[in-house]
């Protein structure tokens, strides 16, 4: 059974940092591209960043470029998202997901997603 369990969310002031982690199990983690997706209330899900199976970032959305960094540890089966210089608009539920289809300017899909961790940026 594929399982993705996120952790590391919380409440932080603007300008602060958080590091999210996603523990993966039930599949060959090192064989799949992975992604972080966030969803704020009343908004569509947003793909934040994608990393290939080798650990090379493939994509980062413009709104977080220079502030968020995706990484992975294939030995430990963990996906990370380092979030720095957080802004009020970063408030959302953050999910890690296994990528099933990826194109930079085309279709993109994931087939498994965790239950998410809440990130709230508030002064």
Can you offer a commentary on this structure?
The chain has 123 residues and is mainly β. 0% of the residues lie in helices and 52% in strands. The chain contains no helices and 11 strands. The strands form 2 sheets. Strands 2, 4, 5, 6, 9, 10 and 11 form a 7-stranded mixed β-sheet that branches. A hairpin with a 6-residue loop joins strand 4 and strand 5 (46-51). The chain is globular, with a radius of gyration of 13 Å. 33% of the residues are buried.
List keywords for this structure.
single chain; 123 residues; mainly beta; seven-stranded mixed beta sheet; 11 strands; globular
Would you identify the regions where 5 or more consecutive residues have pLDDT less than 50?
A: none
Helix percentage: under 10%
Count of separate DSSP helical elements:
0
Helix/strand/pairing class, anyone? mainly beta
Our measurement of the CA-to-CA distance between the termini, rounded to an integer number of angstroms, reads 40 Å
| SSE order | EEEEEEEEEEE
What value does the average pLDDT take? 96
> What would you report as the Rg, rounded to the nearest angstrom?
13 Å
User: Beta fraction of the residues?
Assistant: over 45%
Largest sheet: 7 strands, mixed
The shape is: globular
Tell how many strands the DSSP assignment holds: 11
